[in-house]
Structure formats: C-alpha cells, structure tokens
Amino acid sequence: MKPVEKADIKRNEKQKKNKEKNTVLIAVCIALAAIGLGRQMTYVYGKYYASRYNKGIAVASNVYFNSDRLTKIDKIINTSTFGTWKSDINWVKDAQNNVVDKIMVYTNNESWSNGAFDFDILIQNYDSNILYNETGMDVGYKIQFILLDDEMGAEYYVLDYDASTSTEYPLTYSDTEGGEAVSFSGSLMGGTLRSHRYKVRMKLTTNNLKNYKQSRVLVVAYPESPDYLVKEEKQPFLMAGIFVGTATDMKISIASQNFRVVEEHSTDYNTKFRDYINNLSGYIYNIKTEGDVVQNAETAIKQNIIVKWKSDYLDISRYDEYYNESKITSGVEEGVNYKYIVIEALPYTSINITFYKTAAFMTAMQNGGYLYSNSENFKSLVYAYIPTSD
Questions:
Q1: 3-state SS class at 246
Q2: The pTM is what?
Q3: Who contacts 136 (Cβ-Cβ below 8 Å, separation ≥6)?
Q4: What is residue 49's three-state secondary structure?
Q5: Tell me, what DSSP letter sits at residue 172?
Q6: Cα distance between residue 342 and residue 329, in whole Å
Q7: Burial class (CB in 10 A: 0-12, 13-18, 19+), 367
Q8: Helix, strand, coil abundance in the chain, percent, nearest 5
Q9: Distances (CA, A) of 203 to 157, 266, 302, 386
Q10: What is the pLDDT of residues 179-217, one digit of tens each?
Q11: CB burial of residue 274 (10 Å; 0-12, 13-18, 19+)
C-alpha cells in the first residue's frame, strides 16, 4: 500500500471545509427564501382575509358588493354630514339630501332614434378576478329603480335579465314620495365570482324626436344581509346611478349617384354612350348614402330620400323593390315633367332603382335628338336628394 502523503491529507481537509461552507451557505439561502416567502404569504393572507371584530362579531374586512355602473354613495358625497342613513330609494331622491345631483349619470354611447335601448347593470360580489367574497360570505341585496321625471315621448321598463324572464316591469313617474319604485331582491353566494344582470329599457313612442324629452332613471342597490352589513355605520355599500337616454336624429347624405351603365363605362362613356344606352332596355340608377354610423338598425329611424326623374323619357319599374304607387307624385319644373318618389334608407346604404325608357326616350336617342346630342343629358334624367325637412 502506498503511504499517504502530507500533501494529500491537507488537500482532503481543505475539500471537507469547503463542503461544510457550501452546506451552510445553501441552508442560509433556503432560510432567507422561506422568510421572504413567509412574509409574502402573510401579506397575501392578510390582504384577502384580514378580519376585525365589530360589535362582537368577526367581520371580514374585505366584503365585496359592487357594480359595473353604480357608484358607492360615500364616494360621491361627504357622508359625515348625515346623521342617519336610509337605504330606501326615496331618501336618495329627496332633494333636501342633495344626493341626486351628485350621482354619476350614464347615457348611451351609440345612436338611438327608434325602438328600444337597453342599459345593462351588473350587481357583483367581487372587485376583480382574484378579489371576491370567500365561501360562506353570501350577500343578500335589494336593487330599486325609480323614474325621476315625467315621461314624454318614451316608455321606461326594468328587466330582471338573469332571471331568464322577458317580463318588462314598467316605471311610471309620480311627484309624491313612495309607491312608484320597482324593486328586486337577490343573493350573491361567496366562494367564486358572482354577478346578476338587470336592464333599464327605454322605448321611444314618437317618430318626431322633437316630442321626446329625457327622463332620468335612478337606480339604488344595497345589502340586506348579513345583518352587520346593513347596520354598518355610514352605509359604505349603498350604491346608486342615474341613466338617461339620448335620442338623436341621424344625419344622412348622398355620397354618390349615377346610372350603373355610366359607372361601368366611365373611361369611354362620353364617346360611346349612344351604343351603351341603346343596347339596354332598362337602366339601374344607383344611390349611395353616408352619415352617422348605425350600430343597430333596429333602433335607427330610416331617413327619407326623394328620387325624381324626367317622366317623358323614363318610368320606374313596377317590379322594383322601391316601387310604391301611393308614394309617387307628379310635377313640373321649368317646363319639364317630373315624377317623384319618397324612399327610406339608412346611412351607408346602396340603393338600386330600375327605370324603363319610354317611346319619347327612343325618339330622343335618334340622330339630332335631345339624348343623342349630349352624353350629359342622359345622366340628368334622374336625381336624388335629401328633403330639407321631414
């Protein structure tokens, strides 16, 4: 056996000491990480589950009762000015309390000029996807709706939308306190994200928007259970919002208009127009409109467009989708015979109307005739415009 040299003994001792130092260093790192993680876990736990004692009852400090539209009253007004709170909606609307004028007002962000418009309201048990009421923290609540102004040109309804019913509960105005509010009670179970949807529905009852006047709908929501939420001083969970429908006449204009045959042969129409026109027995006149963007055609009123044509040369096809004999009138302008028809259209619509030529048209297309002599004369046979007043 080879004897152990002194150098080998020193080398082994040094390696042993280094191993012990590394073991200690790793242990320290693990300990520090555990302390940091522990502090973080304690912070998270404290953030979500911090509790306090209120009147002898353990109360979760993070109770969530919120809405996507309604705002908590204590964020709107100085709650210290009120000695006693009342959750009842008639207390909120009482002018002496000066609350209504400070509540957030919501209006529609899209055109509304016909039919119904809905405002959605969610009642929620959460602030975000990770901040919600824990299991067992069930919140019972009441939500109330009331009309603050007399109806004019519209009807107002409330729907308990998530109750899977289409029942419309009417709102009617009363200048006396009490009896006119529509109320619903609900419950939001804890343990996961919960919400319930309600709708404020406004229906126009007039086509003349000059006869419409805005009426405000006040909405109030507040907890009814557990008891300690109801008895909490200053009612921090009381929420409110006001909803107003803005009805506006849509603006519509004619972006372009011409015969299809002219558009299709625009490059050489002026030189070959006689051939193009004679080869057809009828002519499609295209009108394109523009104006306000229509997000919902069911809530938009169609605007009137008047189409006139020189009736000695053309007549509208009886099979055209816009043909309506009761809406056709006749007239004379500067010695020229015209017929007129009123059609209805929305902005950004393409309208095609078919016309047939008369015997006078064919005569005018002969050599030396009115239509034969100038390519522009055919284009001017039809013209569409927006009436100055409907």
A1: coil
A2: 0.58
A3: 190, 191
A4: helix
A5: -
A6: 9
A7: exposed
A8: 25, 35, 40
A9: 8, 47, 17, 27
A10: 578 999 999 999 999 999 999 999 999 877 888 999 999
A11: middle
Cross-strand bridge partners of residue 183:
144
Amino acid in position 165: T
> Which amino acid appears at position 179 of this protein?
G
Range with the poorest average pLDDT among 94-103, 129-138, 184-193, 203-212:
94-103
In tens, the pLDDT along 226-247 reads: 888 876 555 678 899 999 999 8
So where are the chain's domains? 19-49, 62-244, 252-385
Q: For tokens 């004369």, name the residue.
A: 377
Token pair of 118, please?
């809905």
Place of tokens 């030189």: 271
Tokens for 219, please give them: 């909405």
Long-range CB contacts (< 8 A, 24+ apart) of 314-318? 314/283, 314/355, 314/356, 314/357, 314/358, 314/361, 314/381, 314/382, 315/339, 315/355, 315/356, 315/358, 316/341, 316/353, 316/354, 316/355, 316/356, 317/282, 317/354, 317/355, 317/356
